[in-house]
Q: What sequence folds into this?
């Protein structure tokens, strides 16, 4: 499981110039007045200037996480590896800890970590199942079945990879939802990884703080 920032197009300067074009003005470098403008724009939900920064990420994640992630479509573009063209390797997500069912009043999510004995049972059952399914996948290919149909046997814990390009506004929308305490733990780990990646640049770190991400 990992996510890498491949490319960034645009900077905080582009946000300011996109906003100041309304008055026919343009700047060459940032100052405190420009940062106050960015703060004002974000606070008052004038978000169109924030769409002038774009990011491209390379993501390696299990399919069940990507299917949540790909619900984020506005301001985004996706391209994923295809099982119609490639033969998949034995590469599956393995949870570090298994979690219990949530309280009956909760319709989604999970509860506390299971006890050690149940952890072991879940790991054994899971490993045996994915091994069996992958062996079946390979056997279907061996007897002549096409890849696009053989892949149907594989579980959503199969690791996949894709490119995701998004505007800064779309990225913040994703991060707000997927770092929320109610988000699934696994996708939240990806979201916080992206926050940390962006915070490696001082201007982006300052911008992220304005948008509510301090770490």
A:
């Amino acid at each position: 499981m990992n996510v890498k920032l491949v490319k960034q197009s645009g900077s905080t300067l582009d946000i300011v110039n996109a906003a100041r074009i309304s008055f026919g003005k343009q700047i060459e470098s940032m100052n405190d007045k420009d940062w106050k403008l960015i703060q004002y724009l974000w606070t008052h939900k004038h978000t169109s200037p924030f769409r002038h920064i774009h990011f491209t990420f390379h993501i390696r994640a299990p399919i069940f996480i990507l299917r949540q992630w790909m619900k984020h479509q506005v301001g985004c573009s996706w391209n994923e590896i295809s099982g119609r063209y490639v033969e998949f390797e034995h590469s599956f997500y393995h949870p570090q800890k298994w979690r219990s069912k949530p309280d009956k009043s909760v319709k989604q999510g999970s509860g506390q970590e299971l006890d050690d004995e149940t952890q072991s049972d879940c790991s054994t059952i899971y490993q045996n199942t994915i091994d069996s399914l992958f062996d079946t996948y390979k056997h279907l290919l061996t007897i002549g079945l096409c890849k696009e149909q053989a892949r149907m046997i594989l579980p959503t814990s199969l690791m996949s990879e894709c490119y995701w390009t998004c505007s800064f506004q779309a990225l913040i929308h994703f991060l707000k939802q997927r770092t929320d305490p109610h988000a699934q733990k696994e996708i939240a780990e990806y979201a916080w990884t992206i926050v940390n990646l962006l915070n490696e640049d001082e201007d982006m770190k300052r911008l992220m703080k304005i948008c509510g991400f301090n770490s």
User: Anything to note?
Assistant: DSSP finds eight helices and four strands in the chain. Residues 116-142 form the longest helix (27 residues). Residues 65 and 187 are 6 Å apart (CA to CA). The two ends are 21 Å apart (CA to CA).
